[in-house]
Design a protein that fits this description.
Length: 99
């Protein structure tokens, strides 16, 4: 998880705060953050989506849950869903999520 988070930070070319502890993200906090991102112009929103996509691809495996979360984010931000392509150019198919 930390490697994926760091990958997203590099994609944003930003120093991000430490990731929150598991369970620390609340619904209202997520809604507030999404509203702030949705209010951004198109290009910054696309950078956020690119960073999230790189986060998903960091382990070269994409679960159906990751795909659906990314799809939901793109929908909320009114941006197209990017292709899920690894750094070497291979398309990564969705795998069953671990329950």
């Amino acid at each position: 998880a930390r490697r994926a988070y760091d990958t997203a930070a590099r994609a944003l070319d930003a120093t991000l705060p430490e990731p929150p502890a598991p369970g620390a993200c609340t619904g209202p906090a997520l809604e507030k953050a999404l509203a702030e991102i949705a209010a951004l112009p198109l290009m910054p929103k696309r950078r956020v989506i690119d960073a999230c996509t790189r986060c998903v691809l960091a382990d070269n495996s994409v679960t159906s849950t990751e795909t659906e979360l990314l799809r939901a984010l793109c929908d909320v931000l009114d941006c197209p869903m990017p292709p899920l392509i690894s750094e070497n150019g291979a398309t990564i198919g969705a795998t069953a999520s671990a329950a």
